[in-house]
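Methods — Computational structure assignment.
A single polypeptide chain was analysed. Its primary sequence is given first, followed by the predicted tertiary structure written as structure tokens.
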Amino acid sequence: MKWDEFTRTLKVHQKYHIGGQQVPSVTTVLQNIGWKTAGLLRWAERIHAEDRDQNQERDAAAAVGATAHYLVQCWVKETEPDLSRVAPIHAEFAMQAYANFQRWVGQTEVQPIASEVKVLSAQYRYGGTADLICQIDGVRTLVDLKTSGGDTVYAESKIQVAAYALAYNEEHDDAPVRRLCVLQMGRETGACVAHFLSPEEWAAGQDAFLRARDLHELRKTLNKKARR
């Protein structure tokens, strides 16, 4: 699979339509939840204290993440990746994350079904792109890939994967996903950690997303310019 072909599928470039009308993406809806703000401010302070450029750090992390996703998609499609257009430093970190992913695959019964799966919810009117649908230990699972490491999963990540599952199962009620996983590929830690959501977390994540979806509409209404 060619790199240019893959980058056109990235979530940041995607627009989602239902019945000819554009609907918000999962990531756009999640902007109505500011739970990560404090953590992002601490990150910005640390980057500034180390005399590094915040925009460069953010863009580098995004490039590594996109490249790691590309490598996983090539694995699913059984095609040879082409990293010739990726900066060497970004490719190096992405390859580390992918190597961790492959070790995890080797230790787990994983059968890929599809990657970068576009999902749409006609009922709740939103769209998104799920990273990976696969069988894990015989259970159809929706996996959201993160290139960060560690044992902590942000609440927003759990909400995000629950939102993808809600839309996916609406479209695939004949073969729904029955388990959700946030997979931290660890671009720097050397370890790949799978976090499977409990039924309580799944339900809470779905509920939180639907409330954020309502907030998205309320925000649009409140931001309309008053008529004169």
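Note: The beta strands are 16-18, 21-23, 110-121, 126-136, 139-146, 179-184, 193-196.
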